[in-house]
């Protein structure tokens, strides 16, 4: 990682798994495809970044927003290149919310957010925080000229934001990203509700790094991090299998530059690009609890 660019002493990547345990077997998302905001990763997909500000904190500058969106474009171009190997019809529409919203971070800052994430009650508070952000966002989204009747207005829950965006952009899959400003020596990265078929997914991020953006988009569509929290002996077997079969899979090496990264057979299956998976990879399908990754 480019230390000069990020100037950070430590990085956390926390994959938030709600309503399910953190094994790849349970992360097999075939049972939830075509549900929620992120369906199968194909056809037209809307990426909708929402820049978030603290009520009394620093404001987003236009050049900062542009830099983030440029990196996001690099990440989606990389995913498009991977999809061509499977003849997947895929097109990304990137449209940022026009104005930053003032909802801040759960726990008041990044450290507080990670402290919350250490308990089930805290995870619930994090989820509620972004549920409220989604409701606030929904009220701010206006009907576009592309929207077809009937326009979604009676839905009063957080789901209204996805319904409005689907209608405005005429797409099925919507990737909703809440983008926070980084703090000195610290960044935030959450993927919420990736194992539920009853609520919408959120990406929460403060990194301006294309590989992590691509990692998160794939994760929201069902891919899973290969950083398992299991006993040492079993982890050694898992890591050897990854090194032997998917040495450059982005879900194993999210900090690696995209030019060296790929998607492997397990990732391709989990995001719906292939219909089945070779039994030789069963060790990953039984994985273990996904843990916080420190870099």
Give a nutshell description of this structure.
By secondary structure, this protein is an alpha/beta fold. The chain contains nine helices and ten strands.
Annotate the secondary structure layout.
Elements: H1 3-6, E1 12-15, E2 43-53, H2 62-83, E3 90-94, E4 101-102, H3 110-116, H4 120-140, H5 159-169, E5 173-180, E6 189-192, E7 202-205, H6 210-220, E8 228-229, H7 232-245, H8 265-270, H9 282-286, E9 289-290, E10 293-294
Parallel strand pairs: 1-6, 2-3, 2-4, 2-5, 5-7
Antiparallel strand pairs: 1-10, 6-7, 8-9
Task: Report what the structure shows.
By secondary structure, this protein is an alpha/beta fold. It has one domain. Helix content is about 35%, strand content about 15%. It is built from nine helices and ten strands. The strands form two sheets. Strands 1, 2, 3, 4, 5, 6, 7 and 10 form an eight-stranded mixed β-sheet that branches. Strand 2, helix 2 and strand 3 form a beta-alpha-beta unit. Helix 2 packs across helix 6 and helix 4 crosses helix 5. The longest helix has 22 residues. The N terminus and C terminus are likely disordered.
